[in-house]
Amino acid sequence: MNYELILPANVSALLARLKGAGFSAYVVGGCVRDSLMGFEPHDWDICTSALPEQMQSVFSGLRTVETGLKHGTLTVVMDHVPYEVTTYRIDGDYTDHRHPDSVRFVDDLTQDLARRDFTVNAMAWSPDTGLADPFDGRRDLSAGLIRCVGEPEQRFEEDALRVLRALRFASVYGFAIEPATASALRAKAPDLKLVAGERVREELLKLLCGKSVGQILREYPEVLAEIIPEIRPMIGYDQQNHHHSFDLWEHTVRGVEGVPADPVLRLAMLLHDTGKPAVRTTDEKGEGHYKGHPKVSEEIARRTAESLHLDNAFRDRLCTLVLHHDTPLRTQSGEINTDRSFLLRRLNIFGEENLRTLFLIHCSDRIATGYSTPEREKARLAERMAALDALLAEQPCFTLKDLAVNGRDLTAVGLKGKAVGEALQSLLEAVMDGRVQNEKAALLLSLDHKSKDNDSDNE
Ligand code: ATP
Ligand code: MG
Fold this sequence. Notes:
The chain has 459 residues and is of the alpha+beta class. Among the domains are: 9-136, Beta Polymerase, domain 2 (2-Layer Sandwich); 144-227, Hydrophobic Seed Protein, CATH 1.10.110.30; 400-458. 51% of the residues lie in helices and 10% in strands.
């Protein structure tokens, strides 16, 4: 059967240039896999028999970036889109588990495909020769299978990142992992500890956002525990708490599945209860309690952020979400708190984006206990979001920036030093509580009353 791929015009032009100069050239890897699955590839990689210096002369006149040239990759930029063009190559050993020690350029496409990780990633296509598929990637794609090219143990030993890539592709595409590949990856998972954090990060975040993340986390928790060791005690952990019907890992997996596929939300749910085993106490009735666990989970999130080289903004948001996943968002009596001053104070602390995200996390966490129904929790979530929408539509004041007076106004009426900041904060609270209008005259007047109250207190 002949498969016709639809190439972007620039990609066709790059292939034509290489062929015109007497070289063979194909689109290869992820873009072929995604095209055959009917998805739009997010980038197009090309492989070719041209050596790096030959590519440079073929593409002279085009904008190129030479950072990967040592490994045979020249990036060609057309219409602001980068295309990676790589000489057919085979990789040497990965003694440091990070990069191949050396690469050797070859002139044979099949050898280049043989170095690739999985059969579904080891296909190439060109307009005049059609699909090159020496490892039956097409068959595995139709069967929904992730299978190593070659001998699985050896392939995972060469580069342990492939262990996580297998889980990533299975999660993203909802594929199964072929049994020999699965048992080899379990055996080689401990080597993941040696892989550079930034390589692990990319694969882990994609895995967490995949449609089959729940299934993968349930089947391979010990692989994840090689990356985040605090996961290990959670596997099969009986919480012995009447608010929870699942063990701690199953609760976590359900929590992850229940939030939108956004890397920071998914990672926050993965880590939100990691602190539980360390803080557990058991009361006289045998019930487990986990007081203070969000703080410990936050410390674990911070360590994880460091080991994965997450950027500061990602880390800070992650830590906030983990630390506050359990922060009461309801009233003492357990009702959903949609009270105006309550919401304004929460907006003041978290900002709109994090507050909405905490609502989502809270909802997923509750459903994942197994003790509340999704319908009930989703109705509560909708009610909260609606209350927040209505409130924000009024453009209310919930930050010092929104307050109708500033430090200069207070200095002008005689306040000095620390008293200025304190007065601003108490005025903001008075406005959020609805005790004073957010208008300059009213605010200054209330300040007057306040200082008079204080004077009389002192008498
Ligand atoms: P994505 O859609 O996420 O970009 P991809 O398959 O294109 O997926 P990349 O990381 O962009 O993944 O790699 C491009 C190709 O290079 C892969 O399809 C695969 O053929 C090969 N490859 C990438 N990483 C490895 C690896 N660690 N070991 C072997 N081959 C790899
Ligand atoms: Mg790619």
